Amino acid sequence: MNDLTLIRKNLFRKKLRAILLTLSILIAFFIFTIIGSFNRVLNAGVELAAADRLITMNNSGFTQSLPYAYWGRIQAIEGVRNVSHMSWFGGYYQQPTQVVQTFAVDPETYLAAYPEFLMPDDQRAAFLTQRDCLLVGETLALQYGWSVGDRVPLLSNIWQKTDGSSSWEFDICAIYTASVPEMSTAAAYLNYDYYNEALAFNQDRVGMMVVNTDDPMANDAIANQIDAMFANSTAQTDTATEAAFTQAFINQIGNIGLILVYIIGAAFGIILLIVGTSLVVAISERTREIAVMKTLGFPAPRIFRMVLIESVMLSLVGGLAGVGLATLVLKGLAPVLAAFMPGLVVTPGIFGMALAMMIGFGLITGIGPAMNAHRVRIVDALGKQ
Amino acid sequence: MTSLYTLTDLSKGYTRGKESITIFEELTMTIPEGDFMAIMGPSGSGKTTLLNLLGGIDRPTSGSVECQGVRVDKLSEGKLAKWRSQNVGFIFQFYNLMPTLTAAQNVELPLLLTGLSGKQRKERVATALDIVGLADRKGHRPRQLSGGQQQRVAIARAIVADPKVLLCDEPTGDLDRKSADEILETLQLLNTDLGKTIVMVTHDPSAAKYARRELHLDKGRFVEQVQEPAQ
Ligand SMILES: Nc1ncnc2c1ncn2[C@@H]1O[C@H](COP(=O)(O)OP(=O)(O)OP(=O)(O)O)[C@@H](O)[C@H]1O
Ligand SMILES: [Mg+2]
After folding, report:
1. What is the ipTM of this complex?
2. CB-based contact A227:A239 (threshold 8 Å)
3. What pTM, to 2 d.p., does this model score?
4. Cα–Cα distance between A60 and B14 in angstroms, integer?
């Protein structure tokens, strides 16, 4: 037997109370882990944004297109390493509900702009050369059971071909995975030239440009230079770093991060009160036992420490169970949500934060009862028979 | 006989607001080593208070409590706790065992304050439980034991760290005659065979007969009555 044996026995002496308290803490940390993981994925785009990537779009908004000719003009700017472009295709497979996020891109510059795309060399070569190739993400391929060599028709709810049809035939010649788990692999990419030549209208326009700079330090200067270059054109541009672009995009959904902080804060506030008051009661019920321990010669600081360890232990038991449960739930959800929320896992960062919060939670709820235990006066407590 | 305790001009009182009560004033006495003393007296006469002062869990208003050269009334809280763990064993009327611990664990509790190894502690616990005749109940919790058995566990806990003095506050107050006699015989044995000095508060004249001498505390005064220990 040692102090920990005593602490453990005290912690679980009232089964029902211990279970209820553990459950409340479990809930708080379950919510924290789930929401924290979602929030991380939601914001991952900002962290994933490469420092050397700029996005140029029409300054009337990202639904407006840019002239194809801008591509060549941006390439000529000093300090620009690579320029690519992408256009929203708005595709679906078989029926409009089966949306496929599809972009028309210039294959060579696009893969140069986004080294995060991984695929076997032969498939990469096929995407670069084969005009009717469709590059498909792993998650998307899995969703429809596609594999390399399949021929699939995609319909566009925006574009029509010169022959009046809106069905486009593609050959799936490559399937990509991502070098980072938080990057979506639910999209498809097609060859811009193949698409542009068949378009019945709006030819020679692109959705946005992706610009890689030689040196991130020059980003601002180059962005200004690009926007200045087209300041007097019909289509004016707005250039920003990828990080700023992604952040602006996330902000359009509303400040989710802040709402989540409120939810977590409210959950923790309530449960902190519940656990805190329960522990005050639990320790005051043991006043007599504490007095006896002191009589035997246990110093007050040691008793203070034991109560504090008890509350931290409670917090760890409930908290770890909550994180464990959240991990299981996220494991189950991850494949289902792969298309919208890629890389949904409990990261060491989130686990570490949860662990720190458990210890903090235990200390906060335990400090009051521990101080009460420290203060117990032997003669007063033993006098009350 | 050398004296274990020397009390000099010991006073204890309480002040509540303007009112002040004196429980006893300028008590002076010695308790020799190896003594078995019964303290009797009416309720409220200060018996428990005196025991608390001897045990260093309360402080006098004035005067001194000296135990083998140590001024108990002068020790800091931390030093006092350590002194108690090494010198005093307490036995209460209502046993005061830890309900979550087994008999053996209850007895082991004071040993957590020593540097003894787990094995040494186990041996000491076994010996202590053996002395009180409860070796076969070491895995039982207080709830599973009778009052007399619980009090014997409490005695084992009080002696396990081998203190010089046992302070007992109405140790048989909650027990029937038979259990009470068993407890008193055990205390007597601890006094005669192991040389423990015992100070026992009791209301029961027949319990007091087990002691070497009786002290009557009344209105802050002691009246001594020496006697032959009952056999
Ligand atoms: N904290 C306190 N504040 C004020 N008075 C107190 C306090 N503690 C004890 N007393 C008083 O001191 C007196 C002696 O109390 P004590 O408990 O020592 O009596 P006792 O002889 O042990 O009585 P009993 O036989 O009933 O156990 C009592 O009158 C009691 O009311
Ligand atoms: Mg009393």
Report:
1. 0.93
2. yes
3. 0.79
4. 85
